[in-house]
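The following record pairs a protein chain with its ligand, acetoacetyl-coenzyme A.
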Amino acid sequence: MDFNLSEEHQLIRQGVQEFCDKNVCPIAEEVDRNQRYPEEVIKKIAEQEWMGIYFPTEYGGAGADMMSYVIVLEELARACSSTCVVVSAHSSLAGYPLYKFGTEEQKQKYLTPLCKGEMIGAFALTEPGAGTDAAASTTTAVLDGNEWVLNGSKIFITNAPVAGVHIVFAMTDKSKGTKGISAFIVPCEAPGLIIGKHLDKMGIRGSLTSEVLLKNCRIPKENLLGAEGQGFKIAMMTLDGGRIGIASQALGIAQAALDESIKYSKERVQFGKPISTLQPIQWMIANMVSEVQASRFLTYHAAWCYDQGLPYSSQAAMAKLFASETAVRQTDRAVQIHGGIGYIKGTKVERLFRDAKITEIYEGTSEVMRMVIAGGALR
Ligand code: CAA
């Protein structure tokens, strides 16, 4: 057993940190304040080959492993979690199902531009009445000659306003339950695909989230992804990998909260000495260091399982559950350590506090993570 990162992974971390110091940190506060999609940074991330880092080079990816992807996301989130989720939803939720279930032609047409960052991807599963109960989808897809006709509405779709392609889930046969759901590749220019209301979020405000409406949306017959009726499995398998990405994001947020807390507690003087010398602060820092490290081990282990070709559904759920709850606790502690200044808009810990919460919700709530973990343990 080796707990050290390989030289290659250490170099990736160093490269992402330098990139973030130069390109991401300087705009993170402004991106959050203005709900601005950081297009210029995403272009630079694409130049680094991080938009498809764990996909093969033959599809425009960097041919690296899941561990490399985790490090990229962790460091991006440490700087700006909005930027991080743009990359993770794009890669894990749009890139992965295309890679795993797409035909060669679909991969060439959609995965390659995604990996190169020439096109952004989105994943449209959630509906107003089908959130945690993903199988309760009411969006329908009916074959009409050589075209599928989709009708329904999706909500909380990350990247939707900037996406060139959406992976959409719809019922092709309601009588078959989860086996009646199918997955579709819907390009943004498909007639009847409408980007609905922009959603004004508490955190990760630089990542754009909106409704996606399908009104007699027509796509070619060959845009079915995987087999008809395979959609629920595709969604679940996609989310298994996505949860490693969200665990990485939560880890980066928690690490940033710790970094800020250490720095501030050494600078802030009360009772004639830095507050870092006071036991209540030291105890908080000790808990933070321990929990961040535990999150890191769980997240890296889930990535390692993926890279080894081992089952990783429960491992991803454990990593996401623990890392996201850690991120929420750590950012709360970080605001507490900062006192009044931590409650003021524009301070990094105030942003981290708001950004952390979503990691307990999207790509499966903490309650869903517990269902998945218990399901695995009790099988
Ligand atoms: N891999 C492969 N197959 C799986 C699977 C997995 N991880 N999980 C379930 N399945 C299969 C089951 O084996 C079963 O197949 P069979 O019928 O052949 O046995 C089938 O799927 C149905 O499984 P369940 O009976 O367990 O399904 P369920 O309806 O009870 O749902 C659930 C279980 C875990 C609650 C699931 O609905 C779930 O994960 N819900 C949360 C959805 C979610 O994470 N949504 C987030 C949306 S994405 C997002 O956040 C947006 C963004 O842009 C960031």
